[in-house]
Amino acid sequence: MSSHREAPEISKDPVADSTDLYAFVSPDNPGTITLIANYLPLQGPAAGPNFYEFGDDVLYEIHIDNTGDGRPDVTYQFRFTTTIHNPKTFLYNTGPIQSLDSANWNRRQTYSVTRVDAGGRCTELGSGLACPPCNIGPLSTPDYPGLARAAVHNLGGGRTVFAGQRAEGFYVDLGAIFDLGDLRPIANLHATFGLPGVAAAPGVNSTAQLNVHSIAIQVPVRELTRHGWNGSDPTDPRAVIGVWTTASRRKALIRETEAGEKLEYGPYTQVSRLGNPLFNEVLVPMARKDRWNALPPSDDKVFADGVAHPELAQLLPVLYPGAFPHLAALNAAGTARADLLAILLTGIPAGIVPGFQNFTGATQADMLRLNTAIKPAANPNNLGLIGGDPAGFPNGRRVADDVVTVELRAIAGATYALVDKTYTPDAAIAAVSDGLTAADVPAGYLSHFPYLGVPYSGYSVH
Predict the structure, then answer these.
(1) pLDDT for 177-218, tens place per residue?
(2) Is residue 1 one of the residues assigned to a domain?
(3) If you write DSSP's letter for every residue of 369-392 in order, what string do you get?
(4) Closest CA to 441 of 175, 177, 171
(5) What is the pTM of this model?
(6) Which residues, 6 or more positions from 12, have their beta carbon under 8 angstroms from its beta carbon?
(7) Residue at 129 is within a domain
(8) In this predicted model, what pLDDT tens digit does every residue of 243-299 receive, in sequence order?
(9) Residue 42's domain spans which residues?
(10) Which of 33, 231, 330, 384 is 20 to 30 Å from the Cα of 238, by its Cα?
């Protein structure tokens, strides 16, 4: 959560587990779009002697659909290579790492970036690009921000890329949410199943002081939109793109017993994907989660019923008796949630939210939809569109957006009034949240690329 360990199989393969996806108009470079895909969830910073890294055997991809069919028109591929520079030591580093070519740094990663267009034509944008090391501590990585800055690479053509460890910027109270939906701010209203009551309390950020590995790329708007459109009219259909990320592994794996090595063969097959936050986690039944990870967004109509009739919407009136009478009546009527179907599977058509649309067409596909003509907000609201800020989720997703609160309130009925003017959302919706904000991220965020904060060091976290 957002997509950490969200399916049984991928929870056993963290190197390929896509945890969060972000897509937004770059606030400090508004002629560009920033795309960030995070992998390797829930990293404890003190992870030596074998620190976290991307998988050399994983194909990481960020896909863009600009024609509305749920299939990629532009793809950025990332392939990683690990090298050991001193085979005689067990150590990740044998002294301070003060540059990306330090002789003290033993295990390094580099990567290549390839752009693939709709016709399958591949253009290598960069190769041999250095990742920074993990943030170990004041003796091993004395100037970590400097190492990270050196790992931001210019690919030419207005493109910038970074791949490496970052502070986890997604804030969520996992401990409360998965304790039978016990949202701490309204815990006093919980049914508790006959057990002793729980008092209301502030949220606890379960991902505080944890790290992730980020792949971030910033590219000109015209490189992602249909026919290179780069206009300023938010009502133009060409302004909207759909974004998702995937991780793939080769189909066959052979383990060499004597050599202690493994060999991979065959074409790549998709093992993980992510578009909207929490989609597979909350809206897809456990028995179908692994299948969802293997399919493209163009096939998501088979999962639409979980969006139209979400299980969590049925549970909320049961877990919080009397707090959601209007939602309970909506559930009892069996009404399909047209608001959620639009937000998550087609984009929001013009005329629903004044002055806004991110509609991609009738094809139901789980993608982050971004209207590239909507400029960054001067004063961003972490609640995005429901907070009156159309530059935020579900119009793409910025690193500090409170997607947990937005989606919880939407499922609880906050957005249904947009499609049915006779519906009145329950008063309790204003309190629906896991009780966290961006201020609960200790590392904070950067105001510039790659935007996620400096990773926590193993020495400093207790």
Answers:
(1) 999 999 999 999 999 998 988 899 999 999 999 999 999 999
(2) no
(3) EEETTSPPPSS--TTGGGGT-TTS
(4) 171
(5) 0.97
(6) none
(7) yes
(8) 999 999 998 888 877 667 778 888 999 999 999 999 999 999 999 999 999 999 999
(9) 10-440
(10) 384
